[in-house]
Structures are given as structure tokens and as C-alpha cells.
């Protein structure tokens, strides 16, 4: 692993898991997503990992038109690296999930390195009243869905987005096997170093948020990729801050955001993405590290530059 001299701090403002009824602070409309993302960048976020929503009811959307409502505003207001998800939601087709990336040709896209059970039904237990008809079924039925990326899908994303537009990837690895799958595509020459690996912990169906699992993932990645990768980590839910801290202590990078946790402390909802960014930034700086600027992250990750995107 290339140990971090400066920490790339990613913020994921909205995602596709949490729903409007779970927190009044979750950004839902395009205006809210833009405002929240800009505030997070001003608080110190280096990278913004973005999903789109339907303005009318807050449901996850893959549509380029919904991304277009906030991408230009964010770009005009901040120099942060913009990362468009190709994960979307388990209810979207691959063509749906690629619509935003193919339209806007970002510097970075997320890429899940394999299929997994992605059960977030427990998040609905805290909800007393659902605001929109789609929410309850969407959350509770996640027990019976697979977040699907097979090797055909992964290769399509690497060629149709990565090779076509010079876009790099945030390789999301929810399990050890996902690292080996990435190594397979490295051997095929479909992606080039440096690799930005995002270890994901605490999702029901993936690796648990146990420090030993983080150590095992880093050790495996070291064996497979040597000095050709940078490691970042986050944990869903209450372990968000501890895992971000643990990743930094181990020479890596970190991610926060309301996509991954709605809370800032035990039982206390975060009032913004910026609040989470500021909290982890204080920890990073207290530990003696610095948060990377967007320009520094572009150099570290070998990105094409914000002037080469399609928005």
C-alpha cells in the first residue's frame, strides 16, 4: 500500500439506502444535494461520491437529467473531485446505472467489485411514519435482493466508462473475494495503477465492522497489489467514525457521509454531511495528518482533471 502522506477524505452525501423518512437532514432534492455537497467540500471533503434522487419523492434515480440538476452547480462552487456512482440501486439495470457516468464522463466513478447480499431492512425499524408510498417496501424488501455485479458487468463498466473516458475508479470491496476479482481485471490489463480501493464494512451481507477484518483486507491487498494501490475504508452505521480513524492510523484514507450513516454520535442524527466531515477532519489533524486538497488528490490518483469531464 502507498501509505498516505495526506488523507483523501471522501464524502458520500445521499446514496440510495436511506430514505426521506429516516432523517429530515438527508439531502433529497437536487438543490439539497448540491448545497450539502458544497458544504461538505468547504468543510474539507476532497472527493464527493454522488448519487441522484427523484425530486418529487426522494427515491433513488439513475437518470442523467437528475444528475444534471446538481452537477454543474457543485462544479462551479468547488474544486472537489466529483465521483459518480455506478452502483445506483439493486433495483436498477446496468444500463440505468451507467447513464450518469456515460453522460457526464467524470474523473472518478465507484465500481462494486462483485455481487453481494445488501440487506438494509433493519434501517426501517426506527421509522414510525413513512412519508412516501415507495419507502417501506423498498427498505423491507432489501432482504430479498442482490446488489448485482458479475464479471461481465464489471468489464463493461471498465471499458465503457474507464477506457472510453479516462475515468478512474473507486473500487468498492465489500469482501476479500472482491480484491481477488480486482486482481483478475488488473491481470487482464483493463485497469491501471494506482488503484483506489475502498474497503466497505458493516453492510449486512459483507465483511463486518471488525478491526481484524480491516487488517486482513489490507494484508490481502498488499499481497495482490504491493505499492500499486491506495486504501480507504468506511463502515456503515455506528462504526463510521471509528473505522475512518482506523483506516487513517493504518496509513490509509477515509470516507464519511449520510449515505453510510445518518448519525454523528450515539442516537444523535447528523444535521449535515459537513458535520461528519468536520468531525473526522478534526480527528485526522489531531493525529498529525493533513487532509489532501483536490489538486493533491488528483495527482495522487492520476486523474484526468476537472476540465476533462462532461459537465
TrEMBL record:
The coenzyme or cofactor needed here is: Zn(2+)
Report whether Repeat shows up as a keyword of the record.
no
One matching Pfam family is BKACE
* Keyword Zinc attached: yes
This protein's UniProt keywords: Metal-binding, Transferase, Zinc
Mind listing the GO molecular function terms for this protein? 3-keto-5-aminohexanoate cleavage activity; metal ion binding
Protein name as annotated: 3-keto-5-aminohexanoate cleavage protein
- Provide the taxonomic classification: Bacteria, Pseudomonadati, Pseudomonadota, Alphaproteobacteria, Sphingomonadales
Amino acid at each position: 500500500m502507498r501509505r498516505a502522506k495526506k488523507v483523501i477524505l471522501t464524502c458520500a452525501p445521499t446514496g440510495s439506502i436511506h430514505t426521506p423518512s429516516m432523517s429530515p437532514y438527508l439531502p433529497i432534492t437536487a438543490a439539497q444535494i448540491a448545497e450539502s455537497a458544497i458544504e461538505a467540500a468547504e468543510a474539507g471533503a476532497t472527493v464527493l461520491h454522488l448519487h441522484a434522487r427523484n425530486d418529487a419523492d426522494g427515491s433513488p434515480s439513475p437518470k442523467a437529467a437528475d444528475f444534471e440538476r446538481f452537477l454543474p452547480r457543485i462544479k462551479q462552487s468547488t474544486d472537489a473531485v466529483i465521483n459518480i456512482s455506478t452502483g445506483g440501486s439493486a433495483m436498477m439495470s446496468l444500463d440505468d446505472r451507467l447513464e450518469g457516468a456515460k453522460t457526464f464522463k467524470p474523473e472518478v466513478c465507484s465500481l462494486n467489485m462483485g455481487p453481494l447480499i445488501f440487506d438494509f431492512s433493519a434501517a426501517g425499524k426506527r421509522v414510525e411514519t413513512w412519508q412516501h408510498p415507495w419507502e417501506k417496501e423498498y427498505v423491507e424488501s432489501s432482504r430479498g435482493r442482490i446488489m448485482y455485479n458479475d464479471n461481465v458487468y464489471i468489464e463493461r463498466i471498465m471499458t465503457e466508462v474507464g477506457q472510453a473516458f479516462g475515468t478512474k475508479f473507486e473500487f468498492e470491496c465489500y469482501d476479500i473475494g472482491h480484491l481477488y476479482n480486482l486482481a483478475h481485471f488488473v491481470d487482464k490489463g483493463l485497469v491501471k495503477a494506482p488503484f483506489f480501493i475502498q474497503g466497505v464494512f458493516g453492510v449486512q451481507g459483507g465483511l463486518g465492522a471488525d478491526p481484524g477484518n480491516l487488517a486482513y483486507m489490507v494484508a490481502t491487498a498488499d499481497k495482490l497489489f504491493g505499492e500499486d494501490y491506495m486504501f480507504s475504508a468506511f463502515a456503515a452505521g455506528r462504526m463510521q467514525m471509528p473505522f475512518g480513524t482506523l483506516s487513517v492510523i493504518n496509513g490509509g484514507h477515509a470516507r464519511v457521509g449520510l449515505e453510510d450513516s445518518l448519525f454523528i454520535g450515539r442516537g444523535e442524527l447528523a444535521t449535515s454531511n459537513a458535520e461528519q466531515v468536520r468531525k473526522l477532519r478534526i480527528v485526522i489533524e489531531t493525529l498529525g495528518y493533513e487532509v489532501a486538497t483536490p489538486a493533491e488528490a488528483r495527482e495522487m490518483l492520476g486523474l484526468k482533471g476537472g476540465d476533462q469531464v462532461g459537465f
